[in-house]
C-alpha cells in the first residue's frame, strides 16, 4: 500500500532554514509527480510546491517562490522541500502528497517559525 512519511520539521527562528523529507513506498515512485502542501491552524490545506516524475519540472506557490525549493531523489524514493528565509507565516503542518489513482497523504510534520 502507498505510504508517505514526512520528517524534518521543527522549531526555527525567522530567517532560518529547514529541509523536509518525504519517504515514499508502495508504488513506483519515479513514475509519479509529488507535491507538498501545508495547513496552518484554522485554515485550509494549500499547495506549496510540486515536482514532475523525473524532476525537471517544478512549481511553487507565489508565497514561497524564491525561498523554497522542491527536489527529489528517485533512487531513494524521497522528495524534499528545502525551506530558506523562513517567516512566521510559514508556520504550519506540512504534508507530502502523491496521486496514485487516488490522493495519498503523509501524516504531516510540524514547522514552527518563531523567535
List the main descriptive attributes of the protein structure presented here.
115 residues; mainly beta; seven-stranded mixed β-sheet; globular
Name the poorly predicted regions.
none
Order of helices and strands: EEEEEEEEEEE
Count of alpha and pi helical runs: 0
Mean pLDDT: 96
Quantity of strands, as a count: 11
Helical proportion, percent range: under 10%
So what's the overall shape?
globular
Protein architecture, described:
By secondary structure, the protein is an all-beta fold. It is built from no helices and 11 strands. The chain has strands at residues 3-7, 10-12, 18-25, 34-39, 45-51, 58-60, 68-73, 78-83, 92-100, 102-105, 109-113. 30% of the residues are buried. The model has no long low-confidence stretch (mean pLDDT 96).
Amino acid at each position: 500500500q502507498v505510504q508517505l512519511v514526512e520528517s524534518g520539521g521543527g522549531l526555527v527562528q525567522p530567517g532560518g532554514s529547514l529541509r523536509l523529507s518525504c519517504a515514499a513506498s508502495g508504488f513506483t515512485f519515479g513514475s509519479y509527480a509529488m507535491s507538498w502542501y501545508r495547513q496552518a491552524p484554522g485554515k485550509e490545506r494549500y499547495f506549496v510546491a510540486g515536482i514532475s516524475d523525473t524532476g525537471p519540472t517544478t512549481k511553487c506557490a507565489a508565497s514561497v517562490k524564491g525561498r523554497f525549493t522542491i527536489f527529489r531523489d528517485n533512487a531513494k524514493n524521497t522528495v524534499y522541500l528545502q525551506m530558506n528565509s523562513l517567516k512566521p507565516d510559514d508556520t504550519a503542518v506540512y504534508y507530502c502528497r502523491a496521486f496514485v489513482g487516488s490522493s495519498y497523504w503523509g501524516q504531516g510534520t510540524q514547522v514552527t517559525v518563531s523567535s
